Predict the 3D structure of the following.
Amino acid sequence: MGERSYDVHIGAGVRHRLAETVAELGAGRAVIVSARPADLVPDPGVPYRLIETRDGEPHKTLATVGELCRRFADAGLTRGDVVVSCGGGTTTDTVGLAAALYHRGVPVIHLPTSLLAQVDASTGGKTAVNLPEGKNLVGTYWQPKAVLCDTDHLATLPEREWRNGYGEIARCHFIGAGDLRGRTTVEQITASVRRKAEIVSADERDTGPRHLLNYGHTLAHALETETGFDLRHGEAVAIGTAFVGRLAGALGRIDQARTDEHLAVVRHYGLPWRLPGSADIDRLIALMRLDKKAAGTAPGRLAFVLDGPDGAELVPDVPEEAVKDCLAGMDRD
């Protein structure tokens, strides 16, 4: 992306490159916003202030962004300084948005500490927070100056957080990253980030190919909102991936073997694939209409990224009845 290009470092111990990266920026001070214990936050090599935060969708709000900006002001942060995020995907999203808004934009470096954040959330420049009405409805594009994916951070992840990240890895199978089953964690992260970099470099602001990254996400975001975020993002993406395989098959875009492959990949990673028992189909449909890809669709139609004979693509005119039938045919927990 020209002068806004940046490196993504992946591997054990790469968080210790932070001071070097800050020095390359020429930043005089730093504010580190961390959802991790202070002893896991590397020294940025310049005077800094540490702000403690918490991961999780309940904290991914405009109120959190406003509080962070006030803390930036109290620290005397300027455009010549740098913000560092250290945490999971909700932290990189929220801190990234605060950095984008404060002084109309200050540099940010991400140190993602969860598998989901390393695979997806920390790269690409999308920042957003939630509203009660839906997921990621307020945000902007603000590319980081660098991303340091230290796999040492993954050593203490609970099993559910691994599944949360695997949901995004599973969907990469269907958007051109290749079959990542059986690969090492570093290889899975690297392949996922490489594919995302290719897509974002071609379409930074989501007007065309970047829609591919939303594979499985239309239903996923609706499920997150409908369940009050009891489903983690990657878990919801896994269910969404299984669903779009069914939908593409029902529309005659792929054969039964390819439809079955969606479910096989999701289940390989130990991910959920059934709808929550309490999910209301009409409510899910209403929430999916809020998806940004649905803008301009005709009444009674919805938009999804679906697999097809030429690979995944945005299909903007999916009949609502076909969506309802596929949802109704899914198994439930």
In short: Strands lie at 7-11, 30-34, 48-52, 82-87, 108-112, 126-131, 134-141, 146-150, 301-306, 313-319. The mean pLDDT is 95. The two ends are 44 Å apart (CA to CA). The first strand starts at residue 7 and ends at 11.
